[in-house]
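Hi V.,

You were right to ask for the full record rather than a summary. Here it is.
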Amino acid sequence: MDLRITSYFLILALFSSVGFAMPADKNSDASLQTIAPSREYNFNFGWLFKLGDNPTYSEATYDDSGWRNLRLPHDWSIEHDFDPTLDGATAYLPGGIGWYRKYFVTPQNKSSKRFYILFDGIYNHSTVWLNGKKIGGRINGYTPFYFDITEQLATAGSENVLAVRVDRSRYIDSRWYPGAGIYRNVTMVAVDPLHIPIWGVYVQTPVATKERAEVALAIEINNKRAAPAEFVIETKILDANAKEVGRAQSTETIPAGEAGVFQKNIAFNSPRLWSPEQPALYTARITIRQGEHIVDRLDTRFGVRDIYFDPKTGFYLNGVNTAIKGVNLHHDAGAVGVAVPKDVWRRRLESLKRAGTNAIRTAHNPASEEFLNLCDEMGFLVQAEIFDEWDNPKDKRLNQWERHSDRISRGYADYFQQEAEEDLKLAVKRDRNHPSIFMWSIGNEIEWTYPRYKEATGYFDMNASGNYFYNPPFISEQEIKGRFHKSEPGQYVLAKTAAKLASWVKELDTTRPVTANLILPSVSHISGYTNALDVVGYSYRRVIYDYGHERYPDKPIMGTENVVQWHEWKAVIEREFISGTFLWTGVDYLGEAHGAWPRKAVRSGMLDLAGFETPAYSLYRTLWSDEPYIAITTQTEDKSLYKRDGKQKVVEKTPGDWQYRVWGWQDVNRHWNYNKNELVIVEVLSNCPSVELFLGGRSLGVQSLADNPDRILKWAVPFSAGALTAKGVGECSILAKIETAGNPVAVSHTIDHKKLPLDGESVAHVEVQLVDKKGRPVSHQDVVIEFELADELELLGTDNGRTSRMERYKSTRLRTSEGKALLIVRAKASATTPPLGAAAIKTIDLEKAVSTKIMGSVQ
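Predicted structure:
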């Protein structure tokens, strides 16, 4: 039997109300899950894929028996070798054109249902055909979209073929790695002709106090029946334990072929308010009934919470002044590219949460629905960003220069005028019920692309001294205005575009402020740009917080893109009017590495590409978390940023240099292996007021934060083998230790899920650490290792976290970095797996299914 036949759907009694059947092969929809009863179905399994292009691929009769069988989400770029002949802006990985096809059988009850196909994101320039007929597509790779496919379906019981063309031939159309393919979830929606449309419920909480919650719902209902429909709308509010806390019910009528929006207001007492510390969630369960028959039911999750920005005192969540401790995140996750399983995001977010992070900016595009669901559940505030380009393009290779020499680096700006409104509204409508989202960002560093903004700043004159990052404007506000308006009076098109985007957001949601990330705020304030913004975000401009607040005291200001250094947070906590910051970045990301081979990514994160903690992570854990914490790093004096002065005190080689550090952390090691008596600078990061350092049992003295304005405690220590231990002094009873290690002889494993269900969904991370013959971690030497996997596991990728690792991710062999490496695996679907995740699903023991051996010599 060929692959096309094995992809047919078998009608199952479990789905008799809808009639969708599931593919028979083990990598197909054998683990199909419903999101809501008889309404939404996982459509990720049983797809066929081919890289290349041919117009016949869209035809229903095309023979695709030789195509690759896979499950979605899928990113084809990340599967390839890194290629130095390509451009580093998109991580030296290829684009191209790819096709996807999927077979399914029309349900027997087709005449009594409406059917929709929902794509959460396809990167990019997608076109969709059903049974050989084009039904639409999307240029923007981050926009969710859907189609009503009812009229295009084959007759009941007959076969359909869905074909999707993805054109990423403009492979440098982004300034970072965007991936390629159907990289987010696909859902089939089957509903009665009388139904709540996709994203048809809008939930607001106009009153959100500890004493009382008022929930306002706007419920859209479509009547695609041939006759008028009378029905009952029943709305229940359920808490996290499915206990009903409020309800409303009414009888309504909609004429044939029309739609209506119905307002429901439900109040209840003593709500659990949503916050990062307590991310309490409620469900609005909306049921449409006719008599005893349930026509449609939709569950919409939301949170009860109140947000407010005060221009003088900052951000308030549920009436509590709250510092925004945020990070920026791109949408890739290292080895898995942009097709990121939920468990991979969960691991990364858990690490950021431990450091005290409470907010995320989705730089620079709408995130996946799955990612936002996690933020709701785990308690992260989200600034949801929508666009990186507006009317004018950004140069993908050289950033600020904004020039282009070829088609392949042209991006979304070419389509902005025709596509922006629909793209924005699709994203906002999908996401406006997420309690995690507390701001909408309409743009990122847009000013570079418009005439006169850069010149008006005065920073870039040949005769201007000083540096843009560290100085307020060199010219007066009046001169900035004069420069900006010298050739054209009044507002320029940027301000008009900003006003238009903000108004589109507020057509759909008035409960959250609109912001943007401003790279040239001294000009944007006078150009009319900030008139469109409720909150003004400053990008790398902490040095003009005071300048902005003094001149525009009625505008809330915060940092929306800042480096992971102490001086950024210091600037926030010293100013009550600054609500917080979003650091660049929470995690290292692929791309933005033009001309940097062999480097495929940017090292700016609190976590590296593999999700391992960096020294920058340790710094911010000492700043953002109250839990006592200590981390130790070391470096030889000649390579260190520090030296001994004449009094043998450790000082900066360049005094005050810590105030000017930007992206990336200084070169340090996390081991204690040097030559005997070699002078080593020991750096300790801690939130303990004082820390004592010991080598063996001998004290090397106490250092205090009060005596170190850069918040790095430092000792100069002649090396001798043993254990280097840093201990908190007094009530801060915490310690950290690194030991001199021998050569690596074995590998230890840490597995986050030791047993995985064979469901085709579940993912596990296997972290490995080299150890010596005494079991001590080895971080000063690296070797080549190889993973061996049981047949039941699918390799998603391996990584060591290094931006300079240029071997493909889909390899079981790699070199460790600092003695560590990561394996990401997914359990395949068992051929005997019961449908819908029944309790009888088999599991696999990862401790037996994964092994590692040392292959290469010590380095």
